[in-house]
From TrEMBL:
This is Methionine--tRNA ligase. One of its GO terms (biological process) is methionyl-tRNA aminoacylation. The keyword Nucleotide-binding applies. Its cofactor is Zn(2+). It is found in: Cytoplasm. Residues 3-397 form the Methionyl/Leucyl tRNA synthetase domain. One of its GO terms (cellular component) is cytosol. Residues 419-549 form the Methionyl-tRNA synthetase anticodon-binding domain.
């Protein structure tokens, strides 16, 4: 079985915030790390990249009088470094839409589905001052639904409704502010409507697709799909490859979706030198694909993308699971760059350890409903779950092995096994399968609930067995307790690795083992640490965060310093 894992491509107009991160990038990384342990490293491919094209970046470049590529070169490298080096995201390939492989693949793919593409003349707003058509964010005006006066031509930031330039009231050019005129222009349209029945059948027959994704996609189909414009009258993007389409580019959403395939091709061509092997992850029945996205991206991933794959008639594997999160709010409000509401991923590392962030965000992952990020809850998770439940349990076991058995794993006496021993042993043996069942459905938060049962039950077990008292009465019972305990820690390190890889490796090292990445997921059920094994150097894995930390002051200080470091596009 080949496992394809993808996270939605972040648009590099801004630094991603915590909500962006947990919705796609971090969730996909946790799953990919799990899948490598469960299904084998060679059977997993994890890709994404920077989405660089589109009108917002072009507008910014026009205002600065520079080439858009100058802006995105810096932004891409900055965001890529944050993902790979700061947040420890384990992409096999993190690429960009300015990749030559991507640009050529998109053009070839669209030419291959040309029988499902037609042209239409449209009336579009045109700025006579700047001599350009005004698609998407090139135009602003009043939202016809909520009355917000600074709505964009593609969407209203206030009410969230999707818009088109023709719907705006009192429209104006986003560059110079002048009132546009209406002119005719020709565009190329993808016949999305022709795929309604096939999409509906695919969704209804899918056993794995989450219900929330099915519901949104089927609702879209039920309302009646219409042809979607493939082209834009812009210069920044992939040139439209169709005859007569000179001066037009491909709409950013169509080409970014095809990036999942081009990133796979690029990985095997550029890094593995096996140019045909990408097909193993895109064709045939022995493939399972996972896409991690936010809920606003469902229609693009569950309707438009599969329709394009079907249109190619090449036999591309359609998505198995599109794991879509609801929204993560910040202290009751939407994340907002302009209003400084939220935490951005280059700010987070200055507040607390990145593994702490990874754990907190998965524990708060909005899998069923919108979730509120509250600092008091984040601190509770770190101080209670990471430090008290997990860290304290590990520390207790290891320190007692050092104190009572000179750092060597003691014997196990099966004839002395009691009901408390059996209960914890069963939890250790059952938990990997329980977590797998949830992770395989994209339910990462729910899976983390199961992982947490080991240290919580383990701490209760220690309190009942009281080795510190029992050592004076029956050393063999203490040996059994700590033998089970050390093996439960090994199991815990493996299960925690996808969530907090750096800390899991430290746990693994403290129990005297190396190369956690070479373990297998199912081996977490086994008691492989044998009597006589020497544990490593022991120290606290986690530490508590001060509850009186002045987060707002800290964030303001961090932001002032980052303003000098962030690339121009991301400030």
């Amino acid at each position: 079985m080949k496992i394809f894992v993808a996270s939605a491509w972040p648009y590099v107009e801004t630094v991603p915030h915590l909500g962006n991160l947990v919705g796609s990038v971090l969730s996909a990384d946790v799953f990919a790390r799990y899948a490598r342990l469960k299904y084998g490293k060679e059977n997993v491919l994890f890709v994404s990249g920077s989405d660089e094209h589109g009108t917002p970046i072009e507008i910014e470049a026009i205002k600065r009088k520079i080439n858009p590529r100058e802006l995105t070169d810096q932004a891409h490298e900055y965001v890529k470094k944050l993902f790979l080096e700061v947040w420890n995201i384990s992409y096999d390939n993190y690429t960009r839409t300015e990749s030559d492989v991507h640009k050529e693949f998109v053009k070839d793919f669209l030419l291959g589905i040309q029988k499902y593409i037609h042209t239409e003349e449209e009336e579009m707003p045109y700025c006579e001052n700047d001599k350009i058509f005004l698609p998407d964010r090139f135009i602003k005006g009043t939202c016809p639904y909520c009355g917000y006066e600074d709505a964009r031509g593609d969407q209203c930031d206030k009410c969230g409704r999707l818009l088109s330039p023709s719907l705006l009231i009192n429209p104006r050019c986003a560059i110079c502010g002048s009132k546009p005129v209406i002119k005719k222009t020709k565009h190329w349209f993808f016949d999305l409507n022709l795929f309604s029945d096939k999409l509906k059948e695919w969704l209804q027959n899918s056993k794995d697709m989450p219900d929330n994704v099915k519901s949104v996609a089927l609702s879209w189909i039920g309302e009646g799909l219409k042809p979607r414009s493939l082209t834009r009258d812009t210069s920044w993007g992939i040139p439209a490859p169709f005859e007569g389409a000179e001066g037009k580019t491909i709409y950013v959403w169509f080409e970014a979706l095809l990036g999942y395939i081009s990133a796979s091709i690029e990985y095997f061509e550029k890094y593995k030198k096996l140019p045909e092997n990408w097909k193993e992850f895109w064709f045939g029945d022995e493939v399972k694909s996972y896409y991690f996205i936010g809920k606003d991206n469902i229609p693009f991933h569950a309707v438009i993308f599969p329709a394009m794959l079907i249109a190619s008639e090449e036999g591309y594997h359609l998505p198995n699971i599109i794991s879509s999160t609801e929204y993560l709010m910040y202290e009751g409000q939407k994340f907002s760059k302009s209003r400084r509401i939220g935490v951005w991923i280059d700010e987070a590392q200055e507040i607390m350890d990145i593994d702490y962030w990874r754990y907190v965000l998965i524990r708060l992952r909005p899998e069923e409903k919108d979730t509120n990020f509250l600092w008091r809850e984040a601190l509770r998770i770190v101080n209670t779950e990471l430090n008290d439940d997990i860290g304290n349990y590990i520390n207790r076991i290891l320190n007692m092995i050092n104190r009572y058995f000179n750092g060597q794993v003691p014997q196990f006496y099966e004839n002395l096994e009691d009901e408390y021993d059996k209960k914890l042993i069963n939890i250790i043996k059952e938990t990997p399968d329980k977590v797998s069942q949830l992770f395989d459905k994209g339910k990462l938060k729910a899976g983390s609930d199961e992982i947490l049962k080991i240290p919580r039950e383990g701490n209760s077990y220690l309190n009942i067995k009281a080795p510190w008292d029992q050592i004076k009465k029956d050393k063999q019972i203490v040996e059994n307790t700590l033998y089970i305990g050390i093996n439960s820690i090994r199991s815990l390190a493996i299960l925690l690795y996808p969530l907090i890889p750096k800390s899991a490796n430290e746990i693994y090292s403290q129990i005297g083992l190396n190369n956690l990445e070479n373990e297998t997921w199912d081996s977490a059920k086994d008691f492989t640490i044998k009597p006589g094994h020497k544990i490593g150097s022991v120290s606290p894995i986690f530490k508590k965060i001060k509850e009186d930390m002045d987060v707002d002051k800290k964030l303001n200080d961090i932001r002032r310093s980052l303003e000098k470091i962030r690339p121009p596009l991301l400030r």
